[in-house]
């Protein structure tokens, strides 16, 4: 990995902090934001909607976050919240909590200073596609040097739409520290506009765009020692899965099983709680809910098989704050 932020992300240790979804200066056809994130003044820490500063800290602790990746829109009013969260995270977890910001505007010196003073470590710029190849001598070149002067590590993070040698020039000149090229992807939020621009999904793939691993991108850019090509498969198989595993280890109960995908598996029964006590089930193997009992899945299977319970179900769910259920399997 090229940056500390990328190393932490690969381990699943980077919390994603989304601050607002308005982009006053941009309207990128490939913007992946869905309806709940685009043109909103909401803040999310991973999947958790943030209602208070404590929500940010709780989510970071839930996943034993090593650092935080900040993204979202670009309204100036979001800056106040961003700097507050940066200070909050550094105060709570110390200077080793690495933070990076992904932004689509250059921002200017004052913003670079404010971010640096608040504790930001690294800033990744995403210039508009229409300027690629013509950024030298513009504010996009200047801000790289300004960010470094203000104590930040400047870098680029761009979608793999096409190979663009100018980014490599900035790296060779020492203006930018590295460049992340993300595999070009479709999402629920952008697929209509992407198709209108002539892009299609790779056959057999859920998100990667046809041609996003084009040889020119891989050979001309990703072969550079300061360029990292981040594939959609890696994001799902490593980053997301490892983040779920970190969460699962922290929130699992004694009887929850953690799968290789980072999900939690347990049994769900609808018998009276007294039934479990009468059967001598140890307290650490079940917990009583409002209208059901959650129990070790393997114990549920045994109890149904032995006739001690009539039925139940095995539940697999994410360890996220909303606990999305992945699968339910009846046991009878």
UniProtKB/TrEMBL annotation:
Ranges where the DUF8061 domain occurs:
262-331
One Pfam annotation reads: DUF8061
Its name, as the record gives it, is Radical SAM protein
- Species of origin reads Halorubrum rubrum
């Amino acid at each position: 990995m090229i940056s500390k932020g990328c190393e932490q992300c690969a381990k699943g240790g980077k919390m994603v902090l989304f601050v607002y979804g308005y982009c006053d200066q941009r309207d990128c056809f490939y913007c992946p934001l869905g309806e709940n994130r685009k043109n909103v003044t909401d803040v999310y820490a991973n999947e958790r909607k943030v209602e208070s500063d404590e929500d940010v800290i709780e989510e970071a602790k839930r996943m034993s976050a090593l650092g935080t990746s900040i993204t979202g829109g670009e309204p100036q009013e979001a800056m106040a919240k961003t700097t507050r969260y940066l200070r909050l995270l550094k105060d709570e977890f110390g200077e080793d909590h690495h933070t990076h910001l992904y932004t689509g505007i250059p921002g200017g010196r004052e913003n670079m200073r404010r971010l640096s003073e608040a504790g930001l470590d690294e800033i990744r710029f995403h210039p508009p596609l229409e300027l690629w190849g013509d950024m030298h001598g513009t504010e996009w070149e200047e801000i790289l040097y300004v960010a470094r002067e203000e104590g930040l590590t400047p870098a680029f993070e761009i979608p793999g739409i096409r190979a663009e040698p100018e980014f490599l020039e900035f790296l060779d000149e020492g203006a930018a520290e590295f460049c992340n090229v993300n595999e070009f992807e479709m999402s629920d939020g952008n697929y209509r506009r992407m198709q209108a621009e002539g892009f299609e999904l790779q056959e057999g793939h859920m998100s990667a765009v046809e041609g996003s691993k084009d040889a020119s991108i891989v050979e001309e850019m990703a072969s550079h020692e300061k360029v990292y090509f981040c594939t959609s498969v890696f994001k799902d198989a490593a980053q997301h899965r490892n983040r779920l595993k970190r969460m699962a280890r922290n929130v699992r109960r004694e009887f929850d099983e953690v799968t290789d995908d980072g999900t939690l598996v347990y049994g769900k029964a609808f018998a009276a709680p007294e039934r479990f006590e009468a059967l001598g089930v140890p307290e650490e193997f079940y917990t009583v809910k409002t209208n059901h009992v959650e129990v070790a899945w393997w114990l549920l299977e045994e109890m149904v098989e032995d006739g001690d319970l009539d039925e139940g179900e095995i539940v697999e769910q994410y360890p996220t704050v909303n606990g999305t259920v992945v699968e339910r399997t009846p046991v009878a």
